[in-house]
Write a structure and sequence with these properties.
Layout: H1 2-13, H2 16-59, H3 65-73, H4 78-101, H5 109-130, H6 136-161, H7 177-192, H8 198-209, H9 214-243, E1 249-250, E2 256-257, H10 261-268, H11 274-304, H12 313-316, H13 320-323, H14 327-342, H15 347-355, H16 357-371, H17 380-399, H18 403-422, H19 426-431, H20 446-454, E3 468-469, E4 472-473, E5 480-482, E6 485-491, H21 505-523, E7 534-545, E8 554-564, E9 569-577, E10 582-594, E11 600-601, H22 605-611
Antiparallel strand pairs: 1-2, 3-4, 5-6, 6-8, 7-10, 8-9, 9-10, 10-11
Helix pairs in contact: 1-6, 1-8, 1-9, 1-11, 2-7, 2-9, 3-8, 4-11, 4-14, 5-11, 5-14, 6-11, 7-18, 15-17, 16-17, 16-18, 17-18
Length: about 625
């Protein structure tokens, strides 16, 4: 099973960047260039797998330890994760169209271009809808076998096409400054890359839930990915040998590009060797599809966790199913690809962001996963400004063929993260602003984290004071909302305990019930038991006990609408202590019956209108 996950990891990471830039860098710098690109790429995957397994062990040994960590740790980076994934999908579609289809020169190009983008996006949507994260390893297992068959078939056809030897050395010397202008950003960007990739986080979480080893899976995945890069880069070097030099062309910026060199060569001999060209096209499409369907599943997972309560007014008018669907993102991808192909942009223009803008966010996220645990505010304005400056510096260096600009642009965000850690007052900045973050099921709200930093140590037996902010009590006796979660906070007392001294198990359900009543009171303030035409009944209740607590401990109960259909509403709950430890979690299902004859009803309109904002 670990190997199946490894295969899925390798295929999903073989996106437009790995698939076609391996050709470009191999043609530019030969075997050294290929290895320089492939090694940090593969190591980045392996390191990610090892560190996520370490994180899961630090958080706890439960099957959802990594998922709980990610739910809270990723809160400040939600939009960054979304941007990263959208750009990765857009880059992949663009790269396949630009370097796999456009060299064919089919006319009328506009019509064929529309049809090609449509079939790519439709296939990605179909596979993404058909195979969720639990089953995607099996579909990718089949796709992996197809890709392997295509690679074997293509390899068997190459001796029949030409007799030239691969050009293993590039034009520029290995130690030249131009080479390092690419090599350093590659090493920085690709080593940190997986930390902002939703696809890889979703896989690591699912692997751990299934009781498998993320480390072993990512070792398999990184190794297989390295072999795929090596195969594609070597094929590019072989093509260069047949043509007596690298098949490069001039871009709109005057620089040389060769990402489509293999496609152009195999298309030129397709009439004589159709099997070779067909096998290469199949391999390209499989690699692209296995990335796009993974991106679809990851985006659906990410968007489904973004609540509707905090959306601005115009978006709140749109159907929830549309807002939580990756389809609008794919439509944007298609439109952007049409524009980019028409303008004759290149893959490197997209890559600049992965070597500069996202590097700082990835480095900060990685450091805070180990340095400050789950209390991690994100200085949004500062990080955006530093990332934007880095993009501009790198772009100037790239277009002016100045390697120093590229090097400085790639290391600037990482250097700034180091400055954030070492500068005076860094400890305060790491927790400053946490109170502005939305609460999630994965851990305590930012309000509690910030308050915990200010509280004195509480000895057993002492009453825990409620946190105060500028002289005002920060909690509400009637509860309050934090994003989609309704939160009720109180102090456990002697009446809640048993003869042993810890809180009696039945009290947790009582606390959830009280919080639910306060939640109803907030959502349905006009509900009148004497005149209501319906009753709300509990169909089922379940709770998982995770930790114990004691008297005089501050307890926070969170509850929200998990899902609903025409007849039922499912409420999810989570309980935390003052230190942010999760005491338990669970869910309950509600039904609605007539107050006159107790017949089962559809969800009443007023309940639907009150609950849907928090679903």
């Amino acid at each position: 099973m670990n190997f199946l996950w490894g295969n899925s990891i390798a295929l999903s990471w073989m996106w437009g960047l790995g698939l076609f830039f391996s050709v470009q860098f191999s043609l530019q710098y030969g075997l050294f260039g290929l290895l320089t690109f492939a090694i940090p790429n593969a190591l980045g995957l392996m390191i990610f797998g090892g560190l996520t397994q370490l994180i899961a062990k630090r958080v706890g040994n439960g099957p959802d330890a990594l998922g709980s960590f990610f739910a809270n740790w990723s809160r400040p980076y939600r939009f960054v994760f979304f941007l990263y994934q959208i750009l990765a999908i857009t880059l992949t579609v663009f790269a396949l169209v630009r370097y796999g289809w456009q060299p064919l020169g089919l006319e009328p190009s506009g019509l064929y271009l529309l049809l090609t983008i449509l079939v790519i996006l439709a296939a990605a949507t179909l596979f993404g809808e058909e195979f969720d994260i639990r089953r995607i390893k099996f579909s990718h297992g089949v796709l992996g076998l197809i890709a392997l068959s295509a690679i074997v078939l293509l390899s068997s056809q190459l001796p029949n096409i030409g007799r030239g030897k691969p050009i293993m050395t590039g034009v520029n010397p290995f130690m030249g400054l131009n080479f390092w202008g690419y090599a350093i950003p590659i090493c920085v960007g690709l080593t940190l890359g997986p930390w902002l990739d939703l696809q890889q986080w979703q896989r690591a979480i699912q692997i751990q839930r299934e009781g498998k080893s993320p480390l072993l899976s990512y070792l398999y995945g990184g190794s297989l990915f390295f072999l795929l890069l090596l195969a594609h880069g070597t094929l590019a070097l072989w093509v260069a040998g047949q043509m007596g030099g690298a098949p490069m062309r001039q871009g709109i910026d005057g620089l040389a590009y060769g990402e489509d060199g293999v496609t152009r060569f195999l298309w030129s001999v397709a009439s004589l060797h159709p099997w070779a060209f067909g096998a290469y096209v199949v391999a390209l499409f499989v690699m692209t599809l296995s990335t796009l369907d993974s991106g679809y599943v990851a985006l659906r997972w990410h968007l489904s966790k973004s609540g509707g309560a905090g959306r601005p007014f115009p978006l709140s008018l749109l159907p929830e199913g549309l807002l939580a669907s990756p389809v609008p993102a794919l439509v944007f991808t298609g439109l952007f690809t049409l524009t980019a192909v028409y303008l004759r942009l290149e893959l490197e223009y997209f890559m600049i962001f992965y070597a500069t803008f996202f590097v700082g966010y990835a480095a900060l996220a990685l450091v805070r996963a180990f340095h400050t645990g789950q209390g991690n505010a994100l200085p949004q304005v500062k990080m955006f400004c530093v990332g934007s400056v880095a993009v501009v510096i790198f772009a100037y260096g790239y277009f002016l063929s100045n390697p120093w600009g590229m090097i400085v642009g790639s290391i600037l965000p990482v250097g700034y993260v180091g400055w954030m850690l070492l500068k005076p007052g860094a400890g305060h900045e790491f927790v400053k602003g946490v109170e502005e973050l939305e609460g999630t099921a994965g851990g305590p709200s930012g309000e509690f984290v910030a308050a915990a930093e200010k509280e004195e140590k509480i000895e057993p037996g002492r009453v825990v004071p409620f946190p105060k902010s500028e002289g005002v009590v920060a909690t509400d006796l009637f509860g309050h909302f934090e994003g989609k979660w309704f939160v009720h906070t109180f102090v456990a007392t002697y009446a809640d305990t048993n003869s042993v001294g810890n809180v009696y198990f039945g009290m947790y359900a009582m606390w959830v019930g009280k919080t639910r009543e306060l939640f109803f009171n907030r959502c349905l303030p006009k509900f009148n038991l004497k005149t209501t035409p319906y009753y709300i009944l509990t169909r089922s209740f379940e709770h998982k006990f995770m930790r114990e607590t004691r008297e005089f401990e501050r307890v926070s109960v969170k509850i929200r609408v998990g899902e609903y259909n025409r007849k039922f509403v499912t409420l999810e709950h989570a309980i935390f202590d003052s230190a942010g430890h999760q005491l338990g979690k669970g869910k309950q299902q509600l039904i609605f019956v007539s107050s006159s004859d107790y017949k089962l009803l559809d969800i009443p309109d007023e309940v639907y209108e009150a609950f849907v904002a928090y679903a």
